[in-house]
Amino acid sequence: xxxxxxxxxxxxxxxxxxxxxxxxxxxxxxxxxxxxxxxxxxxxxxxxxxxxxxxxxxxxxxxxxxxxxxxxxxxxxxxxxxxxxxxxxxxxxxxxxxxxxxxxxxxxxxxxxxxxxxxxxxxxxxxxxxxxxxxxxxxxxxxxxxxxxxxxxxxxxxxxxxxxxxxxxxxxxxxxxxxxxxxxxxxxxxxxxxxxxxxxxxxxxxxxxxxxxxxxxxxxxxxxxxxxxxxxxxxxxxxxxxxxxxxxxxxxxxxxxxxxxxxxxxxxxxxxxxxxxxxxxxxxxxxxxxxxxxxxxxxxxxxxxxxxxxxxxxxxxxxxxxxxxxxxxxxxxxxxxxxxxxxxxxxxxxxxxxxxxxxxxxxxxxxxxxxxxxxx
Length: 376
Known about the structure:
mainly beta; Immunoglobulin-like; 2 domains; eight-stranded mixed sheet; 26 strands; 2% helix; flat; disordered N terminus
C-alpha cells in the first residue's frame, strides 16, 4: 500500500481572512505561495511533533536572469522517537518555466530516467526502487542554483501581466530514511501524484509522520522590468529582535543567510498543581523598513505596500494561536508587540524544545527565528 505524501506548498487557511490580497490569483498577490511550508490535517498545527518543513525562501526573493540564487528551508524533526535521522535532500536540477506555472507539471521529469535531473553526469538515471542517495546526498537546509539567462524570454507570456517574468521551482524532501522513485501506477492519473517515496532501512515505505516533499517557487524579472525601467525587488523581512518576557531578546543571523535567525535559550518554569500556568508573550519585532512598496496600486492609484504576518510553532507547551498580522497592506503597522504577540503556556513536565516564529510578506519573502526553550 502506498503511504500518503504530504506536499508542502503553504499554509493558506488562517491567512485568507486578513486580506483579499492573499487570495488573488495574480502573480503579485500569489507569489507568497513560493514557500514550502507546514501541512494541514494536524490536530494542532502549531505543535511540531513530526518531520516538518515550516518555511522556505530565497535570496534574492525576486531573481534576475543569469544570477545566483540561494534557497533556505526551515526543516524540523519533531518526532519523539527517531529510529533513523531526518535528512534534507534537494533535487539539483530546478524546473524552469513549467506549463501554466504549475509545480506538478515538473513531476514527470523525476521518472524520466534522466540522470541529469538528479545531478548525474553520465550513465543511466535512477529506476523505481533504486536508492536515490547516490544522486541526492544530504545537503542540509541551504541550496544554491543558477537562474537561467533565458528564464524570462522562454516563459509563455501571461495576458494582462505588465511585467514579463520567468519561474524556477526547486524541489526538496525531508525524509527520516532514504528516497526512492516509485513505480508507475496506471490506476492513478492524478497529475499531482509525487513519484518519490521515503523508505526506512528495511525497505518499509514511510508515512507522513516521517517525511515531506516540498518545493519553492522563485520568480525572475528582467533588470528593467519595474516602473521607469527600474528593477523589481523584494527583500526577506528583517527581524530586529524578539519581544519576550523580561524585555527584548537579541537575534543572531545565521552565517551566509539573510533569513535564518536564532536567539539565546529562554528559561521558564513548568506548570504545576501549586502554581498557575504562566502566559508568556512572544513575538517578532519587524522594522517598518521591511514594509516594502510593491508594483501594485490601490483603487486611487496610490502604490500599495506588502502585507506582513508571522506564523508560530513550538515543540512543547501550547501557543494561543497560529498566526498574527504585523503590517496591513494599506494601514501599516497593526501595533506594538503588546498587540501582536501570542501567548506561550509551558508544559507540565520539564524539558527542552523550541519556539519558531516565521515572518512572511505576501510576495514570497520569509524569515524565521528559532528560540530554544528550557522548561525547569
